[in-house]
Amino acid sequence: MSSLRAAQAPRPTPMSATLPQHLRRRLAVVLAVVLLHLGALWALQSGLLSRAVELVIPVQVLAEFIEPPQPQIELPPPAPPVATPTPPQPKPRPVPQPLPQPVAALTPEPSALAPAVPLSPPAPPAESVVAAATPAAPPAPAAPMRVELPSSSADYLNNPRPPYPPLSRRLGEQGQVVVRVFIEVDGTASRAEVRQSSGFERLDQTALQTVLRWRYVPGKRAGVPEAMWFNVPISFVLE
Which CATH code is given to the segment(s) 147-236? Predict the structure, then answer.
């Protein structure tokens, strides 16, 4: 009877079976982490980790050696230097050589027994001979002096026109007379003569007397008044 009760009595269930499912998952994760830490500690103590490191290091070195070499960039060669042309050197000017100067030679004094010989005069130097051979250049001609001829047509002179002789007008006499007059420095006419006749005496005399009464602007030489001859043309024309 007692055995039957013992068989019928309920068995005790573990604690994990009574926990909910999400707690069980967390408990499994915690246990896995603890086991990993314990395994790592055991590996450190037993030297397995150092062997793994020793096995991994050669792989890294081989990877470094297998890496292809980087292409080298070739720099372009430097440009050759450009030769600068050197300027031509100027030719040296010839230096004029000085002319040889005559040197006076010492002559021994004549002895008392030797007859006296007249000495020839020394030769003139070469420069004086050349200067004497070339003729002297003629002096430059002086600039001609400016000459201003007298004038009788100035407005301020108020010279009257020559009168036409009445008899010459009735006879129809006409022509041109050129009178040569000597004009003084003060502008007066001191002498006069007929240089070219008109062919009629009355016309020539009338022109001669008219120019002697006129006033003139005196002639000048280099700006200085000077007495000089002057030709005055007078025309007689019938209107």
Answer: 3.30.2420.10
